[in-house]
Structure formats: structure tokens, C-alpha cells
Design brief:
Helix 1 packs across helix 5. 33% of the residues lie in helices and 21% in strands. The protein has 198 residues and is α/β, with parallel strands linked by helices. The chain is globular. The chain has helices spanning 43-54, 69-84, 101-113, 140-148, 183-197; strands at 2-7, 10-17, 28-33, 58-62, 93-99, 123-127, 155-159. The longest helix is centred in the middle third of the chain and has 16 residues, at 69-84. Helix 3 (101-113) links the parallel strand 5 (93-99) and strand 6. Strands 1-2-4-3-5-6-7 form a seven-stranded mixed β-sheet, sandwiched between helices. It has a single domain (2-197), classed as Alpha/Beta hydrolase fold, catalytic domain (Rossmann fold). InterPro entries: AB_hydrolase_fold, KANL3/Tex30_Abhydrolase, NSL3/Tex30. It holds the Pfam family Abhydrolase_11. This is Testis expressed 30. It comes from Kryptolebias marmoratus (Mangrove killifish).
Length: 198
């Protein structure tokens, strides 16, 4: 179901993936957003959203085209506020996540929300977290600050390719492509890891 999320004087495009049997017993929600390029219809996000819904989780993904991180965080906060106003579900557990720049915004918002409540967010899902610009491994402390400042109880899942040049590892690329494997098989593995972790 596509929706428009109020964001200042604008609206953000967003989409829900609901569990097949929609009932009030859905207690866990996952919010996802894309990286610097693309939108909420990025293949990996759609695949993960559908997999989450098929396992009984509510998933809300959204598009924010801004490349400015503070702007992205504000957009993510608007989506968070929108999710809290939903009446048809009793959401008790929320996980924030995204891909690349999207998971940087998710981690930053989770850090900000600790002032609202220690258990506002149960975890952060980081798909291809860009720990540093390509090849600039010395800059990792700045980008990891939000992760290091998360409340102790907030769990973090990292899914990164071993050849990701933004995560200083030696596998898979930043786009999670693996030589000799289909994109679908890689996504199935990633989806399974995320669902088991939640």
C-alpha cells in the first residue's frame, strides 16, 4: 500500500508491506530507506520488505532524495512520527534500517530517539553501511559516531560485502553482488539473516 508521509510542507513517498493475514497482533515494525541513489523501490529493499511481511512483520519503506545527511535524518524522523500514529496496529518493537546512506540516517535517528525513550528502537539494520568514503579508511571514526553512541540495549546488524570499498574488508561489493551467484540468491540469504536476527 503506497502512502504519502507529511514532511514539512511536502510529502514523502512511502509504501507498506503488510503481513498476509492483517490483524492487530502485528507488534513488530521495520522502517527502511535507500542509499544516496535510487529510491524505496531499490530491488534489495523491496525483496527484504516482502520477506519481512511474509514472516509477520510490518515494513514501511520510504524515498528521500536529499543527499544531505541532516535532511535525511529529518525525513526519517517524519516517517517515525507517521508510524507512531497508525491505529490499526499495536507496534511494540521497532527496527530502523536502510541501505548505505539510508542506514547512516537510521543510526543517527536511533541515537536521537534515546532521549525520547531508552527502548524506542530495538535495533538498527545496516545494509552496506558506508563506514568511510571509498578507500579512505582513516575517516571511519566520524561516520561510526552515531553507532558508537547508541544506547547499550540497541542491537545493530551489519550486512556488508567482503569487497565493499566503503567498509574496509577484503566476496561481495558495496552493492552486495557476489561473483558467481545470482542477485536473487544473495538477497534470499540477506533476507534470511535479517529475519533471524530480528
Amino acid at each position: 500500500e503506497t502512502v504519502k508521509v507529511p514532511f514539512g510542507t511536502k510529502f514523502l513517498d512511502a509504501a507498506f508491506c503488510f503481513p498476509a493475514a492483517v490483524h492487530k497482533d502485528v507488534h513488530t515494525a521495520v522502517v527502511l530507506t535507500h542509499g544516496a541513489g535510487g529510491d524505496m523501490n531499490f530491488t534489495h529493499l523491496v525483496s527484504l520488505a516482502r520477506a519481512l511481511a511474509s514472516h509477520g512483520f510490518l515494513c514501511l519503506r520510504f524515498t528521500c532524495k536529499g543527499l544531505n545527511l541532516p535532511y535525511r535524518i529529518k525525513a526519517y524522523s517524519a516517517v517515525w512520527d507517521y508510524l507512531k500514529t497508525l491505529q490499526k496496529f499495536t507496534v511494540k518493537h521497532t527496527f530502523l534500517g536502510g541501505r548505505s546512506m539510508g542506514c547512516r540516517a537510521a543510526a543517527a535517528l536511533a541515537r536521537q530517539l534515546r532521549d525520547e525513550s531508552e527502548d524506542a528502537v530495538q535495533g538498527v539494520i545496516c545494509l552496506s553501511f558506508p563506514l568511510h568514503p571509498p578507500g579512505q579508511t582513516h575517516t571511519h571514526r566520524q561516520r561510526s559516531e552515531d553507532l558508537r553512541m547508541l544506547p547499550e540495549g540497541v542491537r545493530v546488524l551489519f550486512v556488508s560485502g567482503t569487497e565493499d570499498n566503503m567498509c574496509d574488508r577484503q566476496g561481495g561489493s558495496h552493492g552486495l553482488t557476489v561473483k558467481g551467484r545470482s542477485e536473487e540468491s544473495v538477497m534470499e540469504e540477506v533476507n534470511s539473516k535479517v529475519i533471524n536476527w530480528i
